[in-house]
């Protein structure tokens, strides 16, 4: 079993801030069960002292006490689990928050290697299981341990032979449980795995609906789904069959235990060693003790299997995070230099950028041009710190970029990607993207700059129009313009446009470019484009060819432009 202190330390750390509620939950669960046991215990008084002795003076006290204990039991039956639910909800929220924060700190190459549905699975399955483990399953185990100790004491006190026989039956039950446990664990793991495959597939099917329709691949998609669903169904059925077999083996033991208690207890009553009232109570207690042992065993098995969920989430949360940097960049950016920068996406892959040695002129419009796959986007991703150079450094004001506080650096730059992500929210929220204190006038001005103002105003709800997921209700060009406006609103020191206007027609692109140039006069703007028209008014042009950067002199005539044209188309 994979129990060790590290797991419990980690689980215990989840209870920070909610430990009192957890303890309250455990205590309430214990009181709830004990109150029922005490009510059962009073049956001895009722039978032996009242009914057999025909002494009715204490009858009403016993009945009232029983009613009181049942009332406590009924009340705590709801309040105990309520406290536990509170703990479950708190842990679910805290873990989801940590995972969400982690997603923003995970190195991008690591994130890209994972299917996004895997992260959805972390949120929906693993976190749910861990919160239930901590808030429900562990408190219930603690409760059962206390209850079984109490019952062992009472049954042992009534008669040691009864206790020994019930312990023997429980032992037998546990032996059977141990026989089935590894098989059940293996099957449960398989069910979990196939279920998660099914969830991931469903999630990805939803995302690929458009392609499936467009390529008329319904049948193929259905077959894929059937295949994955059948794997899950077979695993779940096999697990169900095994659970049935286990129940079939343990049921006779339960009946055997009940019969032996009846036999031994009855004999002790006839011998006068046990009163009828105590026998009736002990009979019920032994039955409960048997259940208690079974529950403890099952809980331990369950908790042990939950450790795989704990492992997965710990691996993620305690995994590699990207370098945050600790140096502040107080002043404005005066200098950006690529100093022998090499970059590989993977240790074993061939280099994408080779010995890049360039100095970006600040306050100018810089263009990166080159054939597809040359490494242009990779360069700007290094600037946006989505990746780190494998060798060499990017120096900003002579400080290695990796050492600058990420938050500090990101407040100075803004990037617009070719395929920007828009949220299923209002246009206003997509534009502001959490930036506050932007006046309506400034918002209008920026929207006019990127020629989206008239379109927004033509909408019935204007800025408050909700756009569909990923901006599905907008055209590609409108999406790009909103993304451009979002970046311009931040008025960054460095603006990076990675094919950010590629979906616009040449006329509109030209118009927007003139506006942006005016707005960003004396500010640094880096553009990546394949169209000659996009880079024509750049101050400096770098040709990125097979991972190498060469500064090309600004063409002075159409022949020289022809050379650039050949290298970008
Ligand atoms: N996340 C990634 N993991 C592995 N390789 C990648 C990744 N992103 C890009 N590449 C590879 O790096 C190389 C350069 O890609 P990059 O996107 O920088 O080129 P580009 O010049 O911007 O191309 P384009 O003009 O087509 O956008 C390509 O060979 C590409 O396959």
TrEMBL record:
Gene Ontology terms for molecular function: ABC-type oligopeptide transporter activity; ATP binding; ATP hydrolysis activity
Transmembrane segments annotated in the record for this chain: 21-41, 61-84, 161-181, 255-283
Pfam families xref list: ABC_membrane, ABC_tran
SMART domains membership: AAA
Gene Ontology CC annotations of this record: plasma membrane
Location(s) in or outside the cell: Cell membrane
Primary location: membrane
Domain ABC transporter: 336-568
Highest taxon of the lineage: Bacteria
Alphabetical keyword list: ATP-binding, Membrane, Nucleotide-binding, Transmembrane, Transmembrane helix
Family statement drawn from the similarity comment of this UniProt entry: Belongs to the ABC transporter superfamily.
Name of the protein: ABC transporter ATP-binding protein
């Amino acid at each position: 079993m994979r129990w060790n202190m590290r797991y419990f330390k980690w689980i215990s750390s989840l209870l920070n801030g909610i430990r009192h509620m957890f303890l309250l939950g455990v205590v309430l669960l214990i009181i709830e069960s004990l109150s029922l046991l005490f009510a059962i215990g009073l049956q001895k008084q009722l039978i032996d002292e009242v009914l057999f002795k025909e002494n009715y003076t204490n009858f009403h006290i016993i009945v009232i006490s029983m009613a009181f204990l049942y009332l406590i039991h009924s009340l705590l039956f709801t309040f105990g689990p309520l406290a536990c639910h509170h703990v479950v909800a708190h842990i679910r929220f805290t873990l989801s928050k940590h995972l969400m924060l982690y997603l923003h700190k995970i190195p991008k190459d690591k994130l890209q290697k994972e299917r996004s549905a895997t992260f959805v699975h972390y949120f929906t399955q693993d976190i749910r299981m861990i919160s239930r483990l901590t808030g429900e399953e562990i408190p219930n185990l603690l409760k059962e341990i206390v209850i079984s100790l109490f019952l062992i004491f009472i049954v042992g006190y009534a008669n040691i032979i009864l206790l020994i026989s019930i312990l023997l039956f429980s032992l037998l039950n546990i032996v059977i449980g141990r026989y089935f446990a590894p098989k059940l664990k293996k099957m449960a793991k398989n069910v979990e795995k196939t279920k998660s495959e099914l969830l991931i597939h469903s999630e990805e099917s939803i995302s690929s609906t458009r392609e499936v329709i467009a390529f008329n691949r319904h049948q193929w998609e259905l077959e894929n789904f059937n295949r994955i669903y059948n794997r899950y169904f077979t695993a779940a059925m096999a697990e169900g069959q095994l659970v049935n077999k286990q129940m079939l083996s343990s049921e006779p033991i339960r009946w055997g235990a009940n019969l032996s208690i009846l036999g031994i207890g009855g004999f002790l009553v006839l011998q006068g060693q046990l009163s009828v009232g105590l026998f009736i109570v002990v009979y019920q207690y032994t039955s409960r003790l048997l259940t208690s042992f079974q529950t403890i065993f099952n809980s331990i098995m369950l908790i042990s299997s939950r450790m795989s969920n704990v492992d997965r989430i710990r691996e993620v949360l305690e995994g590699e995070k990207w370098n945050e940097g600790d140096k502040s960049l107080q002043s404005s950016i005066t200098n950006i230099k690529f100093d022998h920068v090499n970059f590989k996406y993977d240790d074993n892959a061939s280099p994408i950028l080779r010995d890049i040695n360039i100095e970006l002129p600040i306050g100018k419009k810089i263009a990166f041009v080159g054939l597809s796959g040359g490494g242009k986007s990779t360069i700007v991703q290094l600037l946006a710190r989505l990746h780190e150079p494998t060798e060499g450094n990017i120096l900003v004001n002579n400080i290695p970029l990796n050492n600058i506080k990420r938050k500090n650096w990101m407040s100075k730059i803004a990037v617009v990607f070719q395929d920007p992500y828009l949220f299923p929210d209002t246009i206003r929220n997509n534009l502001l993207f959490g930036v506050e204190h932007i006046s309506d006038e400034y918002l209008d001005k920026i929207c006019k700059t990127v020629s989206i103002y008239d379109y927004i105003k033509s909408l019935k709800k204007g800025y408050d129009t909700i756009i569909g997921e990923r901006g599905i209700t907008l055209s590609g060009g409108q999406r790009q313009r909103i993304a451009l406006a979002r970046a311009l609103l931040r008025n960054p020191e460095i603006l990076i446009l990675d094919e950010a206007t590629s979906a616009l027609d040449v006329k509109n692109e030209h118009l927007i470019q003139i506006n942006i140039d005016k707005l960003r006069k004396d500010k640094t703007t880096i553009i990546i484009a394949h169209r000659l028209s996009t880079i024509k008014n750049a101050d400096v042009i770098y040709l990125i060819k097979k991972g190498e950067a060469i500064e090309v002199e600004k063409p002075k005539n159409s022949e020289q432009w022809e050379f650039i044209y050949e290298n970008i188309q």
